[in-house]
TrEMBL record:
Keyword Thylakoid: no
Residues passing through the membrane, by range: none
GO biological process: methylation
Protein name: S-adenosyl-L-methionine-dependent methyltransferase
Superkingdom of this protein's organism: Eukaryota
Keyword Transferase: yes
InterPro entries registered for this protein in UniProt: Methyltransf_25, SAM-dependent_MTases_sf
Record keywords, A-Z: Methyltransferase, Transferase
GO molecular function: methyltransferase activity
Amino acid sequence: MLANGGSTSLPIVHAVSREYEAFPGSRYALPADDEELQRLILQHNVLKGVFENKILLAPVQLDANGAVLEIGTGPGRWILDLADSVDSSIPMVAVDIQSRMFPASAPTNIDFRVESATHLPSEWTNKFSLVHQRLLMAALQIADWPVCLREIHRVLRPGGWVQLGEFTGWPAGKYPGKPCMEKLVAMYRAMGDARGLYTDCTQGIGKMLAEAGFVEIQSEARMTLVGKWAGEAGVANRINQIGVLRGMKTPILKAGGFGYVGSEEEFDRLLEGVEKEWDEIPGAQKEFVIFWARKPQV
Ligand SMILES: C[S@@+](CC[C@H](N)C(=O)[O-])C[C@H]1O[C@@H](n2cnc3c(N)ncnc32)[C@H](O)[C@@H]1O
């Protein structure tokens, strides 16, 4: 039985205009194309804005003896930003499961390469002073998270820091006065469940970090406001968040719409309705949480 009692699970035929990178075993739900790249740049700026322009909360001392690793770098905006603000002798590695969004040019101290979060090279044990990973919630399955955090622990040198950033998932349940939002959230969560994704990963990251062996676990959360009612920042984040949902169109339609939409037109109309609700009814917001933790010295 589908989430809302619907009966169809046949793929919904639609013209796939976005580029999705198919890599073996991946459940990644977002595309890797120029539109997504632009969205990720916008999102980087939104997140910087709510954290007072800070991109690094872990209290790590970076120097030429300690390398930095970023996992799931996408277009690399975070690591490019970091590289801009620290000594250029600090070696940096930025990895992603696919290279489509890698920047065309980058400082020579950053090495962009294709690697998976769940299987980092064996020669990287005890190598990095800092590992950063942001927004893999649409990529890692529930069982991948402990594997990934153990890998990060392994590649950090003793005393090194990890910093993770994730959005809190749209909460399930009623959205009074916002019928489109209520339907959209139910559909988005059904897609996450069908793919085995950890939609509410922010609730489990602290515990999983401790289980992976990290200490001094801390976090800071900020609300990002969504919609015209919240001014320029709200409009930017509305464009960002609608971009995430648009990016999930093909995975949702290919899965048959989970009983919430029966055609591409219905999907598009639902998103238009959500956008209108965000703009016209004050209050939509999405929490972003940054976690940081240390690998013990011994
Ligand atoms: C939502 S984007 C975030 C990009 C970047 N971290 C940022 O915050 O702008 C997620 C990225 O994770 C990558 N990804 C998905 N599965 C991965 C895996 N198993 N290992 C490494 N990267 C992965 C995707 O290709 C995509 O570039």
